Amino acid sequence: MTTTLDRTAPRDLAAVPARLSLTPKTTLAGQLDGAWWPCSRDLEAELPPLAAALEERWGRITRVTVNPTRWPVVPHTVPMDGRVLHVGWFTEQDPDKLILLSYTVGRWDLLVIPPETAPAAAARLMAAAAIPGSVLTAGVLMANEAVIGRGIRDEARREATWEAEGGACMSPFGDAMGRSSLPLSANGWR
């Protein structure tokens, strides 16, 4: 899959607040510290609002690491408020995870929800990633959501089929049965 970034489009996302869900402060250590749902796959535009949103709670973010699988362009540095945020990439890192580092406070791992994710799916993922002490990794959460999404789509398809057939009953062979093919009840109604 090839992704291109439109460098002529306005990229100032500073006015858009970062879409975050963070685990509450607790002694329970989990696999993730929350989730981030960026608006695009442009790290240069997306990282400054994210780091700014986290600095009050976590301190100054100095480095970020990603897996380049999900990002078409991974810049080495991103300018932010008169300083530079260093960006690294590792193919061994979970593609659905972003790691934030600070010299003074430590490390945080966030699930990265793809920008094109439907709002309902993103809400489920953000809630699941923010559970304190959860042992589920970013990859497991994304795989679970894929299964849940597939189930929701299948159920919607079955319901649409049911409605399109007029709510007809199905024969044991999978064929729609009209009312005339149903046996008469004791009172003569079909």
Description of the molecule:
- The structure is a single chain.
- The protein is of the alpha+beta class and 190 residues long.
- The protein is 28% helix and 20% strand.
- The chain has 3 helices and 9 strands.
- It has a 7-stranded mixed β-sheet.
- β4 and β5 form a beta hairpin.
- α2 runs antiparallel to α3.
- The longest helix has 27 residues.
- It is elongated.
- The N terminus is likely disordered.
Detail the topology: elements first, then pairings.
Elements: E1 20-22, E2 34-36, H1 43-58, E3 63-66, E4 77-80, E5 83-89, E6 97-102, E7 106-112, H2 119-129, H3 138-164, E8 169-170, E9 176-177
Largest sheet: 7 strands, mixed
Report the C-alpha radius of gyration, rounded.
24 Å
Instruction: Provide the succession of SSEs.
Output: EEHEEEEEHHEE
Subunit arrangement of the protein:
single chain
Helix count from the secondary structure assignment: 3
**Helix fraction bin:** 25-40%
| Terminal CA distance | 54 Å
| Strand proportion | 15-25%
Can you count the beta strands? 9
Q: Please state the overall shape, judged from the principal axes of the Cα atoms.
A: elongated
Based on secondary structure, the structural category is: alpha+beta
Mean pLDDT: 82
Unreliable runs = 1-11
